[in-house]
Amino acid sequence: MKALVFHGPGKSSWDEVSDPAVEDPADVIVRVDTVTICGTDLHILRGDVPDVAPGTVLGHEAVGEVVEAGADVRTVRAGDRVLVSCITACGRCSYCRNRSYGQCRAGGGWVLGHTINGAQAEYVRVPFADLSVHPLPDSVRSQDAVLLADIFPTGYEVGVLNGAVRPMQTVVVVGAGPIGLAAVATAKLFSPGQIIAVDRATARLDAAERLGADTKVAAGEGPERVVSELTDGLGADVAIEAVGVAETFEMCTRMVRPGGHVANVGVHGGPAQLHLEDLWIKDVTVTTGLVDTYSTPMLLGMLRAGRLPVSSLVTHTFDLGEMEDAYDIFSRPSETRALKVVLNR
Q1: Strand 62-69 vs strand 81-84: parallel, antiparallel, or unpaired?
Q2: I need a surface site. Which of 114, 190, 312, 327 has the fewest CB within 10 A?
Q3: Domain of 158: which CATH number?
Q4: Which helix (H) or strand (E) holds 82?
Q5: Residues 335 and 253 occupy one common structural domain
Q6: Tally of CA atoms within 13 A in the half-sphere of 291 that contains its CB
Q7: DSSP string, 255-267
Q8: What is the reported pTM?
Q9: How far apart are CA 75 and CA 225, in angstroms?
Q10: pLDDT digits (tens, 9 = 90+) for 26-76
Q11: Helix (H) or strand (E) holding 184
Q12: Domain with 224 in it
């Protein structure tokens, strides 16, 4: 089969590789029909995630058809159309029993495209299938469902829920890429008083406005000043960091009000300073997290009911064999106006 293979920082290619096979009775093999590219994949290519070994097939978000199921799989069978979650979960360890699937201690967590071969391929092996793939109704389009493999659960769980968004609060989302946009869309579920989106790319700020942001601020236009002016000098109740660099994390800690929450969602490849000399007295809560995807069934229900604005996030579609072109477009959002790219078989 063909797959997008990581060859080290800055190097990847669409290569011929061996087909995956069932290695454990809890595995399924999925024929990939729809797949997408994540900002985390770009972090990997920049060398920010050193755990990823050269030779690994990238990707952790897909929709496809089960073509083979191990003997212990109970929830799906060959022929079923499924969403492949970015997180796999054994369901038995102490973390999984607490729905902290991202911290699975039995070989799960974020493994696809990280510690094992991933989903940017014609076929993918998914471990612990009973909790790691979700059957899809015919009424849900594949290019919509694939956005629930990662970005919507991540924006919702790690951004909105960890940030404890409440009605009438001020929420600032720094970084209006796909994850940040998902945070804007799901923050609206809690009726905040105002949502402020910050980014460098005009297209992403425009998308944030369409999804419910009340104010959009270009990164070079003094976002800290704008947040201060809009909150009578107090700062935001919730600051969601959705970029993954020191500058934006530290900006969020300066924009949050006393008693507020900073929810870090971005994937950081380097250190950031935590200015406790300023924060210790402000009763600020700082959270980090890898998504657990426990919200995926609920989000799928909302998608099926037409209550989740997903379609507007897909700006470019490609054939599966155009993976390298899709990476090029996705990696240059300021020039290409790309939000989320989707590839179909």
Answers
A1: antiparallel
A2: 312
A3: 3.40.50.720
A4: strand 81-84
A5: no
A6: 29
A7: HEEEEEEEEE-S-
A8: 0.96
A9: 52
A10: 999 999 999 999 999 999 999 999 999 999 999 999 999 999 999 999 999
A11: helix 178-187
A12: 154-287
